[in-house]
Write a structure and sequence with these properties.
TIM Barrel; 250 residues; single chain; alpha/beta; globular
Length: 250
């Protein structure tokens, strides 16, 4: 009952168009619960868009582009399966591929990871951009060894190579690699983003709007990243579909 009493003065009876006021209060209770906060944020923006009879992107400054380039994530299977899947999506018009690497995705060694990426590169040719995402699953030494090998295959991006807490390790990789180093899990919240910036740990950052606490918090996050001259990519979530509209905004 205590939790309900805390929420009542924030949401019940509030003006849904006062998103800044509502969300600022909610962050006091759920500052580290991005998905829970995000769903409320999405609803408020949806209410505002419907009340004003405009799509939400108009509330955020208007459409920035008619089309968006997307990257297809390749997860399961060995070299043959990954290569075959890559060929199919490239034939459909995809120009950028991301391949999961590391033990989180069933790869026993960095040799497995290298062979998977090599097979995909051979299948799609040199004109397709290929990046890898370790989801923080590699230790520093393994991440360095794998990244150096992958540079031979012209891999353009290494995303979250080391655990989210090892920002120092990611910074050391950043200085040693020619490939682009991207922070994701380490930079989900603004505090983590600031840490990555202070330690010069990456070339870019990846945001998922729902993880970051919704549209309002993501706007703050993106302003900081842009001010630090970091490239920004936006990832999507696998879910019910409700969150898809918010993911598309950025």
């Amino acid at each position: 009952m205590l939790a309900i009493k805390q929420w009542e003065p924030v949401l019940i009876g509030a003006n849904p168009l006062g998103i800044q006021i509502i969300m600022s209060k909610i962050y006091r209770f759920l500052s580290s619960s991005g998905a829970a906060v995000g769903i409320i944020d999405f609803c408020l923006y949806d209410i505002m868009g419907k009340a004003l009879k405009v799509p939400v992107y108009q509330l955020l400054g208007g459409k920035a582009a008619d089309k968006l380039g997307i990257a297809m994530m390749i997860t399961r299977g060995g070299p043959k399966e990954k290569a075959a899947f890559a060929e199919r999506v490239v034939a459909a018009g995809i120009k950028t591929l991301m391949i999961k690497v590391g033990p989180h995705w069933g790869n026993a060694s960095i040799s497995d990871d290298y062979n998977n990426v090599k097979a995909v590169r051979k299948a799609v040719g040199d004109d397709i951009k290929i990046g890898v995402d370790a989801n923080g699953g590699l230790d520093y030494t393994s991440a360095l060894d794998l990244s150096l090998k992958l540079e031979e295959l012209n891999v353009y991006k290494i995303e979250q190579p080391v655990p989210r807490w090892d920002v120092d390790g990611m910074a050391r990789l950043h200085y040693k690699l020619r490939s682009h180093v991207s922070a994701h899990e380490s930079a989900i919240e603004i505090s983590g983003l600031l840490d990555c910036i202070k330690r010069d740990a990456c070339d870019s950052v990846c945001i998922k709007v729902v993880w970051s606490g919704g549209i309002m918090k993501s706007k703050e996050w993106m302003g900081i990243a842009k001010a630090a001259n970091l490239a920004i990519s936006c990832g999507a979530m696998v879910g019910s579909g409700f969150e898809a509209a918010a993911q598309a905004i950025f």
